[in-house]
TrEMBL record, chains A, E:
Free-text function comment from the UniProt entry: The transhydrogenation between NADH and NADP is coupled to respiration and ATP hydrolysis and functions as a proton pump across the membrane.
Predominant place of localization: membrane
Source organism of the structure: Actinocrispum wychmicini
Taxonomic lineage of the native organism: Bacteria, Bacillati, Actinomycetota, Actinomycetes, Pseudonocardiales
PANTHER family associated with the record: NAD(P) TRANSHYDROGENASE SUBUNIT BETA
Family label: Belongs to the PNT beta subunit family.
Residue stretches making up the NADP transhydrogenase beta-like domain: 11-462
Enzyme class: translocase
Protein name per the record: NAD(P) transhydrogenase subunit beta
UniProtKB/TrEMBL annotation, chains B, D:
Full protein name: proton-translocating NAD(P)(+) transhydrogenase
Keyword terms, alphabetized: NAD, NADP, Nucleotide-binding, Translocase
Gene Ontology MF terms: NADP binding; proton-translocating NAD(P)+ transhydrogenase activity
Source organism per UniProt: Actinocrispum wychmicini
PANTHER family: NAD(P) TRANSHYDROGENASE, PROTON-TRANSLOCATING NAD(P)(+) TRANSHYDROGENASE
Secretion signal span: none
SUPFAM superfamilies xrefs: Formate/glycerate dehydrogenase catalytic domain-like, NAD(P)-binding Rossmann-fold domains
Residue ranges annotated for the Alanine dehydrogenase/pyridine nucleotide transhydrogenase N-terminal domain, each copy included: 10-135
Highest taxon listed in the record's lineage: Bacteria
Automatic annotation (TrEMBL), chains C, F:
Protein name: proton-translocating NAD(P)(+) transhydrogenase
A family per Pfam: PNTB_4TM
Enzyme class name: translocase
Keyword list, A-Z: Cell inner membrane, Cell membrane, Membrane, NAD, NADP, Translocase, Transmembrane, Transmembrane helix
Organism: Actinocrispum wychmicini
Function per UniProt: The transhydrogenation between NADH and NADP is coupled to respiration and ATP hydrolysis and functions as a proton pump across the membrane.
Length: 467, 358, 96, 358, 467, 96
C-alpha cells in the first residue's frame, strides 16, 4: 500500500484522470463519439476521486461517506427521473451545487487557516476568487433553474432604474470584503459578507435576464464554476483540480460564445440585460401574433436529418424563387449516403405553374422514383422523421382542412404536420400566394430555418458533410 | 337493378374540326364508375386521341348515344345541331364560349369550364390552366420545329452554334410553361408581362425578365386592358426588344377582349431571317399583326405560326387533364350518384352560365 | 510550484480552447452538461479539506454539504449527459 | 486584276425536292473570300434556308452561274441535268451517293462528303456527323410533337402525368443526340446498340442502357451486319423490350446496306396506343417494318414517322455546319488560292470517288 | 534588474513564450493566418531566449555570442538564398542541426556531471533519451538532405539481406551503452559509444528509404527532435523546453501521419523500408514508361485554385462518364465566390457526340457566357493560373501538334500546357478515344488527381468550403 | 517537480494533438518547417549549460557548436517558413 500512497503515484493518477477528461471531451464534440466520450470522462473522475482517497493522512471517512451517500441519493434519482424537456434546468442545478461546493470549501479554508494567516498571498487570492465565483454561480444557477422550472416567472425581473446602482453596490461590497481579507483581516464577518454579497449579486444579475437567454447564462455560469474549481486547485496545489477546472473554464467560454451565436445573441447584450442595460430579449421576428416560433440552425437541421430514418422534402414556390433545386438535390445525396430515405412530396399546385416543381427537380437530376404525388405521400408522413419544407407555404397550411373561412379551405394539402418534426425553410414570416397565416409554423414540432432557401440548404449540406 | 338508377354521363365525339380531344378518358371513366355514375360514350369519341372504344368499355363505359344522358360532358362548345339533341334539364359541361343564347333557349344547365373561378379550392377543376400548360409546352416545341436553327448551344467539330434566344410575351400559365420548356431544350429565355408581380415567377423558371416599365394589374389575377397611350408605348418598346430574339412566343390575353397586338409588322421585318413567332392568341385575333390564325406563314423570312386549339395537338394528355377537371366538377355537382346543384356554392354559381328555368 | 501550476493552467486553457472549436449546435447542451460534470472535480477539494482533518462541527457540516454538492454535480452530471446523448444512439436500430 | 486569277467556288441552288439546305452559308463565304477564293452563288440558293441573296452579296459572293466555276459545292448528289452542266476537270463536292458512274463519265473530280474517313484529323470535315446531330435533335422533337402525351413528368392540380419513356435504337451520333435531347425535355431515356462499347456513351448522356446480349462490332467504328440467327434473336428480344416505351427512335444503319428491321409490325401492335416510332433510317429502307418513308402514318393507333432528309428541317444551322465541313475540305484541296490535289493525303484519297483522267 | 532575474519572472516569461508558440501554431494551420502565426511563434522564441539570458548566474557571454553569431551567419543566408524547390532539404538540414544540438548538450551534461553521478534517475534517463534521439535525428536528417540535394543517390541504398541484422546490432549497442550509464557507468566511452551507435542507426535507417518518401521521413525526424527537446527540458527542469518540445513532438506525429496519408503511404511501411522490410516504394501507377507523373490531392488542388486569378475548366468525355457536371458547376461557384475567374474550354470534339459538353453543362446550369470555344480560349491559357482538365484526354494531347505519326496529328487541341499549371482529373493512366499516350501528364507543370471525376471534384468542393 | 513536469508534458501533447487536427496538404510543408523552427528551443538548453558555467575546453567547444546549431535551427527555420508562406500572401494583388 505504501507506494500507492506515494504523492508521485497520486499525481500520476491525477495526470491519467485529466488526460481522460480531455480525451472524453474530444469525444463529446462529435455525435458519433459523444456517448463514449462522456463515459471516458466519468472514468477519469472516478480515478481522480480514488487518487484523492489515497492521499496519506486522510481521515473523517464516515463524514466523507455520509456526504457522498447524500449526494448520490439526491443526484442519481434526479438525473434519472428528470424529463427530457427539463434537462436544461437540471444542468443549471448541478452546476449550481458545484459552485456551492467551491464556495463552502473556500469558507472552511478561511476558517481553518484563521483568515489565511501564514498562507502565501496567492492562496488567499485564489480562495477568495473561488468563494466569490462559486457563490455567484450557485445562486445564479438556482435562479436560472427557478425560471426554467417556472417556479420564478420567466420574464425579466428587474428593480427598474435601481438595477445598475444595486449591482454596483454589491460588487463594491464584495471587493471591499475581499481586499480586507487579503490585506490581513481575519474577521469571519468579512468572509460571510463576501459570500452574501456575491450571492446577492448572482441573484440580481440573473433575475433580469429573460427565459430565452437562459441556456447561454447557464453555460456562462458553468464556465465560471470551472474557473472557480481551477482557483481552488491553485490554492490546494492540486493538479487535477487546476486542469479540469481550467479546461471547463476555457471550453465553457467558447461554448457560451457558440451558443450565443447560434441564437443570434451576443453575450455582452445578455449580460448587459442582467446589469439593467438595454440588451433586447430574443423573440420571434415578424408576425403580429403573440404566438412564438422556434428557430433552428443549419447544423441542427443537418443533425436532425442525418439521424432520421426518413426525410420528406416538400418543395414550394420559394425553392423556385431561390433556384435552390441543385442544392436540394445535393443535400438529398448527402442524406442518402448516410442511409436516410429521402422522398420529395410534390403538391399538385406547388409553385406557380402546373409542373413547376417537376421542371426544377428534373433539372437537378432528381430521380423520378423519388418524386411522390400528394396522395401517395400523405400516408407516409406519419412514418416520417423530418418533413423539410423548402419555400412551400399554402400547400402545407392546415387551415385548408380546419378553417372554413380561409380562402384555401377545401384545397387538399400535404399533411406535413403528421411527421415527427417539421423544419421550414423560408426567409421570414410572410405569407404565400393565398395571403394567409400558416398555423403550421407555431406547431411545437415545427422549427424554422430562416433565410434564402438556397443559402440555407447549402449550409445544411456543409454541415452534413462536416458530421 | 340498382345500377339503372344511377345518373349517366354522356361523352360525345367532338365535332369541331381539328378537335382531337375528348371530354373523358378511360382512366377517369373508371373513377366515375367507382363513384356510382354510369358513363355512355359515343363510338369513336376517343379516336382523335388514339384511344379506342374498347379501352372505354374495359373501364366500364357503355357505347351508345351520349345525348340522352342527364349529364353531357364536352370539350368544345356544342354546335346548334348538338344543342338540339340535348334534353331539357340536361347538365352540359364544357368550354361553352361566350355565346350562350342558344343554350339558354334549350333549357339546359350549362356549366362553362372557363367560368370556374380561379380560387384555391377550384384549382383541380381549372381547365384553363391545365389546357394552357399543354399549349405552353407545345408552343415551345412548335418554335423549335419551325426555327431554322438549334435551340441549344452546340460546340461541334464544324463550329459552334449559339443558343437560341426565346422571348415569351405574357407569362401566364402557358407562358411560364413555354419558358420552362424552351429552357430545358437549352434556349436562353426571357419573359415579359404587364403584371409586374410576374417577374419573380419568370425568374423562378430560370428565365430573365424583360422590364419595359409598363404595368397593368387587373382583377382576379388577370391583366386589365391597357390605355391607348400605354399600348402605343408598349408596342414601341417591344418593337425594339423583340428584334434580338430567335423565337417570340406570345400568349397575351385579356379575358373577353381581342388580344392585344404586341408584335407589329415592322418588328417582324426587323427580326433576323429564319426567326419564328408563335402566336398563342390566334383564337382571339392574335398578338402578332401578321398572324394568320390556324396557319404557319413566312413573312419577311420570318415564320409566323398562329395555331388554333393547340392543346388538341397532344390529345391524350390534354384530354386526361381535362377529364380530371371535369371529374372534379362532377364531384361537386353529384352527390351519391344523384345530381344535386348547390347554387350557394361559389364555384357552382360562377360556372353555371345558363340555368334551366325551374 | 505556483509558476508550474500557472503553466499547467495556461496549457489546460489552450486544451479547452482547441478542443471546442466547432461543435454542431445540437451538441451544445450535452457538451455543456458534460463539462459541467467535469467541474464536479471540486468534490476533490472538499474531500481533501475534510479528509486532512477539519475539526469544528460547523466546518464538518459545511464540508459534508460541500461533498454532497460535489457528488451531486459529478454523478448527476454524467448521468444526465448520458441520457441526453441517448438520442444519438437511437439511430436506425429498427433497420439494422 | 489579281482577283480574277482566284479560283471560284460555285454554290448552286439545290434542286432535290424538300432539300432546304445550301452548301455554303454567308458566314463561310466570308471566310473563303478571306482565304482568297471567289464565290459565285446561284440566285435563290439560300432561299430554302431563309437566307436571302443579299446576305451572300454582303459576305462577298457574286450572284451568277455556279456551274462555270472550277469548284462546285453541293449538298445532295447532282441530277443528270446538273452533271451535264459541269465542265470537265471541275472539282465537285457534296454527298455524291453511291452511283458515281455518271460523274466519272463527265470527267470531274468528285469528292464525296460521306466518304471522308472518320479519323481525328478529318473530324472538322465530317458532314455525316454534323448532319446526324441535326437529325438526332429533330428526331427527338418529332417524337414529342407526334406523341399524344407529354415528354416530361408533370404534377398538376388535374393529376400527375408520368414522364414518357423514350428508347433509341442505334446509338451513333444521331442516336446519342436524340437521347440527350429527349432527356432534356424530361423523358426517361434508354439506348440500345449492337456495339457494346457504346453502353458507356449512352450512360454519359444520362440514359439507361438496354442490354440484349447481342454484339456486332465491325470495322472503323461502324457496326457490321448481323448474321441471320443473330438478327432473328435480336428482333425477338427487341419485340419484347419495345412494348414498354412511348417513343422509339431508330437510327440503326450499316454502311452500304439496307437498314436492319428492328421494330416489326407485331411490336407496333403491342405498343400502347398513342405511342410513336420515329424511323431515321427511312432513306435506307427503314428500321420499322411499317414505315412509309417520307410520311407519318398511324398503324394500330401508333404513329410511325419516317422522315426523309431530316436535317433539311433545320436548314440554317444544318447548312452552316455543312458549309464549315466543306470549308475544312476546301482548305485541304486549295493552297493559296490555287487548286492543289494531293492524293497522297489519306483524306483526299479516300474522299475522291471519281477522278478526272489526266 | 533584480525582479527581472527572479526565477518566477523567468518562468512567467517562459509561459508567455509557449503560449505564443501555441497561438502561432494555431495560426499556421490556416492559409490566411499562417504568415502571422509564424511571426508570433518567432516572437515567442525571442522571449524564451531573452528569459534564459536573464537567468541568474549566466556567464560565458562571449562564447554564447560567438555561438549565436556563428549560427546566424550560417542560418540566415542559407534560409534567404535557398531556391523554393530546395526547401524540403533545407528543412531537413535545420531539423538535423537541432537534433545535433540536443545530442551535444546531452554529451556535455554527461561530462559535467561526471556520468550523472548524484543526479536523480530521471535526469539520466531523459538526457540519454535526448542524446539517442538527437543523434539519430541529426544523422538521419543529413542523409535525407543529401538524398534530396542529390549529393547521395535518391534511390534506396541498402546492404541487402544484412540490413536488418545490422540495424538490430546498432539498436542493441545503443541500448547497452544507455543501460550501462543509467546503471552507474561513468566511462565517457559508453556515452561516445551511445552517440556513435545511434548516429550509425540514423544513417542506416534513412539510407534505404526512397526519395519519394523523404518528406514523410523528415517530418518524422522533426517530431523526434521535438521529443528530444522535451526530454532535455525534463532533465534541465525547463518548462519552455518541455512544452515547446512536446508540442512539436505531438503535432509532428500527427502531421507525419497526415502527410503519409496524403501520399497514400503508411508510416510503418516507410519505416519498414528503412529497416529492410518490404515497404514498397511509391511510384506512378500504370504507364509502362519510366517517366513519372506527379500526383496531387483534392485539398492541394483546392488551395491552388483558390489562390489563382483564372481557372479554366477543360471538360471531356470522362466528365460525361462520371456525370460530374453538377459537381463541376458547384466547384466553379465556390471559386467564383473567392474571386477567381472561371471559364470552361469546350473543345469541338470533346465527348462522344457533337455538343456533348454543352448538353451536360447546360443541365448543370453553367451560364453560356462562361463557355469558351477552342479558338477563343486558346489565347487565354498563357494567362491562366490553373487549367483543370476533367476527364479530357485526346483534346489536350500535344502530340496532335508535335507527332506526325500520331493518329490525332493535325487535330486542333486545347493548349492547356501553356497555362501556369495543369491539374488532370482521371481515374488512371488509360488512354482516350484515340488510344494514344498523352505527354501532357508527364509535364513538370502537370499534376494528376486520380479517381472518378465526380468524386474528385466533390472532394475539391469540400476542401474549398473548408478553406 | 518531476510529476508537475509530467503533467505539463501530457498537456502539451494534447495541445499539439488538438491544434493539428485537419490541415490542408499544401500547408503540410510550411507547418513542418514551422514546428521545426519551434524545436530550435533546444538552443535554450545549450545556453543554460554553457551560461551556468561549463568550463572544460572541449565542453565549451561542444556547447558553442550546440548553440550555433540551435541558432541555425531557430533563425533558419522561421525564415524559411516565412518564405514558404510567401505564396499565400501573393494572391490577387494585381487585381486589387
Ligand atoms: N402550381 C400552380 O399551377 C399555381 C398557379 C397559380 C397559383 N398557385 C398557388 O401558389 C401557391 C403555391 O404554394 P407554395 O406552397 O408552393 O408557395 P406559396 O404558398 O406561395 O409560398 C411560398 C413561400 O416561399 C417563401 N419564399 C419565397 N422566396 C423564397 C426564397 N428565396 N427562399 C426561401 N423561401 C422563399 C415565401 O416566404 P418568405 O417570403 O417568408 O420567404 C412564401 O411563403 C398555392 O397557393 C397555389 O394555389 C399555384
Ligand atoms: N465529340 C464527338 O463528336 C466525337 C465523336 C466520336 C469520337 N470522338 C473522339 O473522342 C475524343 C474526345 O476527347 P476527350 O478528351 O473528351 O475524351 P477522351 O480522349 O476519350 O478521354 C477521356 C478520358 O476520361 C477519362 N475518364 C473516363 N471515365 C472517367 C471518370 N468516371 N472519371 C474520371 N475520368 C474518366 C479516361 O481516363 P481514365 O480511364 O484514366 O479515367 C479518358 O482518358 C476525341 O478523340 C474525339 O475525336 C468525339
Ligand atoms: N389562384 C389560382 O389558383 C390560379 C390558378 C390558375 C391561374 N392563376 C393565375 O391567373 C393568372 C392568369 O393566368 P392565365 O394564363 O390564364 O392568363 P391569360 O391566358 O388570361 O393571359 C396570359 C398572360 O398575358 C398577360 N397579358 C395580358 N395583356 C398583356 C399585354 N398587353 N402585354 C403583355 N402581357 C399581357 C397576362 O398578364 C397573363 O399573364 C396567372 O397569373 C395565374 O397565376 C391562378
Ligand atoms: N473518329 C471520329 O472522329 C468519329 C467521328 C464521327 C463518328 N465516329 C464514330 O462512328 C460511329 C458510327 O457513327 P454513325 O452515327 O455515323 O453511325 P451510323 O449512322 O452508321 O449507325 C448508327 C448506329 O446504329 C448502330 N447499329 C447498326 N446496326 C444495328 C442493329 N442491327 N441494331 C442496333 N443498332 C445498330 C450502329 O452501331 C451505330 O451506332 C460512332 O460510334 C461514332 O462515335 C467517330
Amino acid at each position: 500500500m505504501s507506494w500507492l500512497q506515494d504523492p508521485a503515484t497520486i499525481q500520476c493518477l491525477y495526470i491519467v484522470a485529466f488526460a481522460l477528461f480531455i480525451y472524453g471531451l474530444m469525444g463529446l464534440t462529435g455525435p458519433r463519439t459523444a456517448v463514449r466520450g462522456n463515459l471516458i470522462a466519468a472514468v477519469g473522475m472516478a480515478i481522480a476521486v480514488l487518487a484523492t482517497a489515497l492521499t496519506p493522512g486522510m481521515g473523517n471517512w464516515w463524514l466523507i461517506l455520509l456526504g457522498i451517500a447524500l449526494g448520490t441519493a439526491v443526484g442519481v434519482p434526479a438525473a434519472r427521473k428528470v424529463k427530457m424537456t427539463a434537462m436544461p434546468q437540471m444542468v443549471a442545478l448541478f452546476n449550481g451545487v458545484g459552485g456551492g461546493a467551491v464556495a463552502l470549501v473556500a469558507w472552511v479554508e478561511f476558517r481553518q487557516s484563521n483568515g489565511f494567516t501564514g498562507e502565501p498571498l496567492y492562496v488567499s487570492i485564489a480562495t477568495l476568487f473561488a468563494a466569490v465565483v462559486g457563490s455567484v454561480s450557485f445562486w445564479g444557477s438556482n435562479v436560472a433553474f427557478g425560471k426554467l422550472q417556472e417556479i420564478l416567472p420567466g420574464r425579466p425581473i428587474t428593480v427598474g432604474r435601481m438595477q445598475q446602482p444595486l449591482n454596483l453596490l454589491l460588487v463594491l461590497i464584495t471587493l471591499f470584503c475581499g481586499v480586507a481579507v487579503v490585506a490581513g483581516g481575519t474577521s469571519e464577518l468579512l468572509m460571510i459578507g463576501l459570500l452574501v454579497a456575491s450571492a446577492l449579486l448572482g441573484v440580481a444579475v440573473v433575475l433580469p435576464i429573460g427565459g430565452a437567454d437562459m441556456p447561454v447564462v447557464i453555460s456562462l455560469l458553468n464556465a465560471f464554476t470551472g474557473l472557480s474549481a481551477a482557483a481552488t486547485g491553485i490554492a490546494l496545489n492540486n493538479t487535477a483540480l487546476i486542469v479540469a477546472g481550467m479546461i471547463v473554464g476555457a471550453s465553457g467560454s467558447i461554448l457560451t460564445n457558440l451558443m450565443a451565436k447560434a441564437m443570434n445573441r451576443s453575450i455582452p447584450a445578455i449580460v448587459a440585460g442582467g446589469f439593467g442595460g438595454d440588451g433586447t430579449t430574443a423573440s420571434a421576428s415578424g408576425g403580429p401574433t403573440d404566438k412564438t416560433v422556434r428557430r433552428t440552425s443549419a447544423s441542427d437541421a443537418a443533425i436532425q436529418m442525418s439521424y432520421a430514418r426518413q426525410v420528406v422534402v416538400v418543395p414550394g414556390y420559394g425553392m423556385a424563387v431561390a433556384q435552390a433545386q441543385h442544392a436540394v438535390r445535393e443535400m438529398a445525396k448527402e442524406l442518402e449516403a448516410k442511409g436516410v430515405n429521402v422522398y420529395y412530396a410534390i403538391h399538385p399546385v406547388a409553385g406557380r405553374m402546373p409542373g413547376h416543381m417537376n421542371v426544377l427537380l428534373a433539372e437537378a437530376d432528381v430521380p423520378y422514383e423519388q418524386l411522390k404525388e400528394m396522395d401517395e405521400i400523405n400516408g407516409e408522413f406519419a412514418r416520417t422523421d423530418v418533413a423539410l419544407v423548402i419555400g412551400a407555404n399554402d400547400v402545407t397550411n392546415p387551415a385548408a382542412h380546419t378553417d372554413p373561412g380561409s380562402p384555401i379551405y377545401g384545397m387538399p394539402i400535404l399533411n406535413v404536420n403528421e411527421s415527427r418534426s417539421v423544419i421550414v425553410l423560408k426567409r421570414g414570416m410572410s405569407h404565400g400566394f393565398a395571403g394567409v397565416d400558416n398555423e403550421l409554423y407555431y406547431d411545437p414540432r415545427t422549427s424554422m430555418l430562416f433565410g434564402d432557401a438556397k443559402k440555407s440548404v447549402s449550409q445544411v449540406v456543409e454541415e452534413l458533410r462536416a458530421l | 337493378m340498382a345500377e339503372t338508377q344511377n345518373i349517366a354521363v354522356g361523352v360525345p365525339r367532338e365535332s369541331a374540326p381539328g378537335e382531337r380531344r375528348v371530354a373523358l378518358v378511360p382512366k377517369v371513366v373508371g373513377r366515375l364508375r367507382a363513384a356510382g355514375l354510369d358513363v355512355v360514350v359515343e363510338p369513336g369519341a376517343g379516336g382523335g386521341a388514339l384511344m379506342s372504344d374498347w379501352l372505354y368499355e374495359e373501364a366500364g363505359a357503355t357505347l351508345g348515344d351520349p345525348w340522352a344522358c342527364e349529364i353531357v360532358v364536352k370539350v368544345a362548345a356544342p354546335t346548334p345541331d348538338e344543342i338540339h339533341r340535348l334534353k331539357p334539364g340536361t347538365v352540359l359541361i364544357g368550354f361553352l364560349g361566350t355565346d350562350v343564347e342558344a343554350l339558354s333557349t334549350a333549357d339546359v344547365h350549362g356549366f362553362a369550364m372557363e367560368a370556374i373561378p380561379r380560387i384555391s379550392r377550384a384549382q383541380s377543376m381549372d381547365a384553363l390552366s391545365s389546357q394552357s400548360s399543354v399549349a405552353g409546352y407545345l408552343a415551345a416545341l412548335l418554335g423549335a420545329q419551325h426555327l431554322t436553327r438549334f435551340y441549344p448551344m452546340l460546340t461541334t467539330a464544324a463550329g459552334t452554334v449559339p443558343p437560341a434566344k426565346v422571348l415569351v410575351l405574357g407569362a401566364g400559365v402557358a407562358g411560364l410553361q413555354a419558358l420552362a420548356t424552351a429552357r430545358r431544350l437549352g434556349a436562353q429565355t426571357t419573359g415579359y408581362d404587364v403584371r409586374p408581380e410576374v417577374a419573380e415567377q419568370v425568374r423562378s423558371v430560370g428565365a430573365k425578365w424583360l422590364d419595359l416599365g409598363i404595368e397593368a394589374i387587373g382583377e382576379g389575377g388577370y391583366a386589365r386592358a391597357l390605355t391607348d397611350e400605354e399600348r402605343a408605348e408598349q408596342v414601341r418598346r417591344l418593337n425594339e426588344a423583340v428584334i434580338g430574339y430567335d423565337v417570340v412566343i406570345t400568349t397575351a390575353q385579356v379575358p373577353g377582349r381581342k388580344a392585344p397586338v404586341l408584335v407589329t409588322g415592322d418588328s417582324v421585318t426587323a427580326m433576323r431571317a429564319g426567326s419564328v413567332v408563335v402566336d398563342l392568341a390566334g383564337e382571339s385575333g392574335g398578338n402578332c399583326e401578321l398572324s394568320v390564325p390556324g396557319e404557319a406563314v413566312v413573312r419577311h423570312d420570318v415564320t409566323i405560326v398562329a395555331p388554333l386549339n393547340l392543346p388538341a395537338g397532344m390529345p391524350e394528355h390534354a384530354s386526361e387533364l381535362y377529364a380530371r377537371n371535369v371529374q372534379a366538377l362532377l364531384e361537386l355537382l353529384v352527390d351519391q350518384g344523384k345530381l344535386r346543384l348547390d347554387f350557394s356554392d361559389e364555384i357552382v354559381a360562377a360556372a353555371c352560365v345558363t340555368r334551366k328555368e325551374s | 510550484m505556483l509558476v508550474q501550476n500557472l503553466a499547467i493552467l495556461v496549457l489546460a486553457g489552450f486544451v479547452g480552447f482547441a478542443v471546442i472549436s466547432k461543435v454542431p449546435n445540437t451538441l451544445h447542451t450535452p457538451l455543456m452538461s458534460g463539462t459541467n460534470a467535469i467541474h464536479g472535480i471540486v468534490l476533490l477539494g472538499a474531500l481533501i479539506v475534510l479528509g486532512l482533518g477539519a475539526t469544528g462541527a460547523l466546518d464538518q457540516i459545511l464540508l459534508v454539504i460541500a461533498i454532497a454538492f460535489g457528488t451531486i454535480n459529478v454523478v448527476g452530471g454524467f448521468l444526465v449527459t448520458d441520457r441526453m446523448l441517448g438520442m444519438f444512439k437511437a439511430k436506425k436500430e429498427p433497420e439494422e
